[in-house]
Amino acid sequence: MAHTVEDRLKKFRQQCRAAGLALTHQRETIFRAVVESGGHPSPERIYGLVKRRIPAISLATVYKNIRVFLDAGLLREVTVHHGTMLLETNPEDHHHLVCVGCGAILDLEQEAVEPVQLRRRPPAGYRIFRPRVEFLGLCPGCARKKPEKSSHL
Amino acid sequence: MAHTVEDRLKKFRQQCRAAGLALTHQRETIFRAVVESGGHPSPERIYGLVKRRIPAISLATVYKNIRVFLDAGLLREVTVHHGTMLLETNPEDHHHLVCVGCGAILDLEQEAVEPVQLRRRPPAGYRIFRPRVEFLGLCPGCARKKPEKSSHL
DNA sequence: CTACGTGCAAACCATTTGCGACACC
DNA sequence: GGTGTCGCAAATGGTTTGCACGTAG
Description:
2 copies of one chain form a homodimer. Chain A is α+β, with helices and mostly antiparallel strands. Helices cover about 40% and strands about 15% of the residues of chain A. The first copy, chain A, has a 3-stranded mixed sheet with strand order 2-1-3. In chain A, strand 1 and strand 2 form a beta hairpin. In chain A, helix 1 crosses helix 2, helix 2 packs across helix 3 and helix 2 packs across helix 4. The longest helix of chain A has 15 residues. Chains A and B meet through helix 2, helix 3, strand 2 and strand 3 of A and helix 2, helix 3, strand 2 and strand 3 of B. Chain A binds a DNA duplex through helix 4.
């Protein structure tokens, strides 16, 4: 339950070893920057933070390692769809089934899901229009190809 | 309740007039392509479809008009964060409050939301790992700036 | 007839790739 | 010592912008 930075780095080192990933200074510094930054940082932001400690680091190295961490399940990303804009063609409110393998999206009618209820009041000044649910999973094709992978997403 | 293509085009023309947008052949063809394509098309895909009917159309025109339609509330997009990759730093399962104005994301502990229940069985062969809820709304700053806007998102 | 919309090309931004040099295991 | 990693620069993919011409209202 304790999620101190040091705890998470310790686990990170274990997971790297388990995954056969070399434990480089760059990797540790990048991972530390992610954990310490809090919120939802972009690769660019991580690059900025890491650069303070390793001025010679390359942006490409940050990108490569974030990719490695994501693939190994050491990190999660907020959105599966960051590549390209996708439009809704279904004018009704509805939910989504999202394949974390290939990014495919299937619509789920709103009635297919129990109404979503917020138990607490939203932060002051915040206006909420509607809740949207994404069921993260694997489509039949990707489930076949990737036996265990991405089960942490 | 009837969402035929012609119904939606009729509404589209009304909304354009109401918004003071010129009703050009390109705009109608782009909107029709979105409605007819179904699913979750990318601008590139719409461009491909429109090009069959207007071979001389420019990709830039497609992008510009999709933007116009989104801003006017004539279309919705699947994701608010398609520009850049964002990472999770919170290792616990949780939900999100997403500002459709500026894209800011706030975490909501999982316990802040009633458990999400799927009423039906997912499509055959689909594996679901976890549901994630996004509450779309406006943060205090954006709510102040954009009085009514984006209330359709 | 005039402001808005279009097409083209160039610019821009986020991300990936190729490759020679280097370091972990 | 050899495979995996790093840094650099160039390539790529998606999206936006500037500008001259054309057209809806």
